[in-house]
Amino acid sequence: MSVSSQWYGVDFAKVGGPDRRALSKSSGARLAEFYSWGEPVLSPVDGEVKAVVDGLPDNPLGVRDEQNPAGNHVVIAAAMNRYVFIAHLQNGSVKVKPGQRLTVGQELGRCGNSGNSDFPHIHMHVQDMPTLNQGEGQDMIFKRINVELTGKTFENVDWPMIRGLFVWRH
Questions:
Q1: What is the pLDDT of residues 44-58, one digit of tens each?
Q2: The pTM is what?
Q3: What distance in Å separates the CA atoms of residue 32 and residue 158, rounded to the nearest whole number?
Q4: DSSP class of 44
Q5: CA-wise closest residue to 82 among 3, 5, 169
Q6: Looking at the chain, which runs of residues are DSSP E strands?
């Protein structure tokens, strides 16, 4: 990734189907066919909401909004110089306001397809500045998750996100 603030960015998509690897319930021709579409998005951290964007339209499949890359999103101050960006939320679904205190697991909104997005999913990254794409990206360690990697399962572990992992809550 060429934007240093998103070097450690992660995209999350819900999967399903018989092999638990499909992104959509059928052909994937409509947003509603994707397992992620409309699913609740929960805060990954305790913190304070610093910024919210809501009201941008969800893109039809195959269309991206490059003028508003994060689309509908929430920015959370998790610690000093640690701002968590949760992007591509569904239009009109954001449930939090700037200045609000959050706890882990609190609903932020619903998974959508707003911004510079190919299909319904959630993008998350941490950076050291509260303004999108300014500053340096920060690595993330996910706590108490289950991970599948190359056919092996690791349960209740703390793990950094890397490409190709399948994860779920413990």
A1: 999 999 999 999 999
A2: 0.92
A3: 33
A4: S
A5: 5
A6: 10-12, 40-42, 47-53, 72-79, 82-89, 101-102, 107-110, 122-127, 137-138, 141-149, 152-160, 166-169
